[in-house]
Write a structure and sequence with these properties.
Blueprint lengths: L2 E7 L6 H12 L5 E7 L15 E4 L3 H9 L2 H10 L3 H16 L3 H9 L9 E9 L2 H9 L3 E8 L10 H8 L4 E4 L2 H10 L7 E3 L6 H10 L10 E6 L8 H13 L4 E6 L5 H10 L6 E5 L5 H6 L2 E4 L8 H7 L5 E4 L4 H5 L6 E3 L3 H24 L1
Parallel strand pairs: 1-2, 1-4, 2-3, 4-5, 5-6, 6-7, 8-9, 8-11, 9-10, 11-12, 12-13
Helix pairs in contact: 3-4, 4-5, 5-6, 10-15
Length: 377
């Protein structure tokens, strides 16, 4: 008999968590599991990548509370008052301040969840997959009927403003808590020692064979640049660290290094990064290529891959880049040593302009020496 399991995520935008879920689904037998993905909103480039045997359900009414979740409460209250929704604004403010007074975020989230219509069925396992996210954790615990419940953590909880007091109130109700790297697992255990017996390491899946096959069907670099191509893949956000590499490229160009930096990804920091690129005069040298569901041809054809993140849980794009045996440089974040050090797949530096620049220069020198030896051979 099949076991029924539901994974709850926000949407299927291009991102590491969503990609990790797709990889996990590809490893799960459709003969053993009846799988459902529960989306807060039906959007994202990865929607078409969901296997056909997987059921997709969408929360009804999420659009009514989306801004209440995504923007600061003060801004939401002001917006509601300006729109003439006085009763709604007062109700929203009341439950928010009540949650602050009693230090219980579930009061506020419970108020938001009342706006959601969900035709629930009973599952064997319900997974709050996009974690930590308070609304998803609350919904899985209070709105989804399941025999067992799992919380999945994809980030370094010491870097994202994680409130361990609030988390403990809900996490103690989960049967298990999965964390994607051993280092992040240890940090979470230290923050939540009373439930450390529930916290387990569960690494993200990737299929090297699938990724390498996709690199053969995808498109890659379209220019005729003949210098060193550096690639970075990741959402355009502060935690992914693209601001650092723009500054590093400026240093390299001042030294006359024949290099271009290609950046795949989209996000809220695009405008800020475009201004930074203009400031350093790098319009022709630092190229924002946007989000791509299949970035693997770029990974295959680049000369150096760099992951400049401030923090991660388990970095999917780094794991994917490893599949192509390219020179790799990563900043120091949770999971980086687990991914790179055991088989010496790459170099790790601090989140520092000078360290990263020096390591890039070293890798460029190694590449040139290798190219010269190949020509002589």
């Amino acid at each position: 008999m099949k076991r029924s399991i539901v994974f709850m995520v926000k949407n299927m935008n291009i991102g590491g968590t969503e990609k990790a879920l797709l990889n996990l689904l590809s490893e799960m037998s459709k003969d053993r599991y009846d799988i459902t993905i529960l989306l807060m909103e039906e959007k994202g480039e990865f929607l078409t990548h969901i296997p056909q045997h997987v059921h997709v359900e969408v929360l009804k009414g999420f659009s009514k509370i989306k801004r209440m979740i995504n923007q600061p409460p003060k801004q939401t209250a002001i917006s509601l008052f300006k729109e003439g929704s006085v009763i709604k604004a007062l109700s929203f403010s009341y439950f928010y301040f009540l949650s602050k007074i009693f230090r219980n975020k579930d009061i506020y989230i419970g108020y938001l969840a009342k706006h959601i219509r969900y035709e629930n069925k009973k599952y064997d396992i319900a997974v709050a997959y996009a974690g930590p996210m308070d609304f998803i954790s609350y919904f899985i615990l209070n709105k989804v009927s399941a025999t067992k419940r799992i919380q999945w953590i994809h980030f370094d909880v010491t870097k994202i403003g994680f409130n361990h007091v609030n988390a403990l109130k809900s996490y103690r109700s989960f049967n298990k808590i999965f964390v994607v790297s051993k280092e992040s697992q240890q940090k979470l255990k230290e923050l939540l020692p009373s439930i450390s017996n529930k916290i387990f390491w569960f690494p993200n899946f990737i299929s090297q064979k699938v990724i390498q096959n996709l690199a053969e069907v995808g498109s890659g670099f379209q220019d005729d640049f003949n210098g060193i191509r550096i690639l970075t893949v990741g959402r355009l956000s502060r935690e992914k660290g693209q601001d650092l590499i723009i500054k590093v490229l400026a240093k390299l160009k001042r030294k006359g290094i024949h290099v271009k930096w290609y950046c795949i990804g989209e996000g809220i920091e695009r405008n800020n990064y475009e201004k930074l690129i203009e400031h350093y005069g790098l319009r022709e040298d630092f190229l924002l290529l946007g989000a791509k569901a299949n970035p693997y041809r770029y990974m295959k054809d680049c000369d150096i891959y760099i992951q400049p993140s401030r923090h991660e849980g388990f970095c999917i794009t780094l794991a994917e880049a490893i599949c192509f045996n390219k020179p790799i440089i990563s900043t120091k974040f949770s999971g980086a040593y687990e991914q790179l050090v055991p088989k010496r797949k790459g170099e790790i530096v601090d989140f520092d302009e000078d360290q990263l620049e020096l390591m890039i220069l070293e890798k460029i020198k190694e590449l040139k020496n290798y190219q010269n030896e190949s020509v002589r051979g």
